[in-house]
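Open question from group meeting: does this chain pack into something compact, or does most of it stay loose? Before anyone orders reagents, we agreed to write out a predicted structure and look at it together. Recording both the input and the output here so the notebook holds the full record.
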Amino acid sequence: MSAEQNPAPETGPRPRRLIYAAALAALEGLALVVGGVWILVMGLTGDADDRQQAVTGGVTLIVLALLPLLAARGLLARRGWARGPAVITQIMALPVAYNLLQADSMAIPAGIALAVVAVTALVLLVNAETTRALGIRGPGSVQDQK
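Structure tokens returned:
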């Protein structure tokens, strides 16, 4: 892609919406890391029958944490590519939140919190101010021809 297709991101201070979106993505990534480490430790110190499943689950969560963490870093650096992984993270979080809300346990508050974070982050990511700060043009945008 040429520079003409994707204009350079705006310069100047970062919009607060962009900072908030990056913070929410980083928070989700850190939560995945903490959850993965917790599952890993509980599995390794618990019953041997569940050890392989716990290790697999823990490592999977830790690897999945890379997506929102890299997206958060890219958003703070005003990289246009970072919005895609951040949006994907939020879309993946919505079914997880729904499943947590279906539980009859302490998972319901976690489902509510996850749903609020995911919807808030989505709204921040598709905001026009965020889009401009990342240098992303919307569909149908006409650029001056030279």
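Observations to bring back to the group:
Residues 1-5 have pLDDT under 50 and may be disordered.
The two ends are 18 Å apart (CA to CA).
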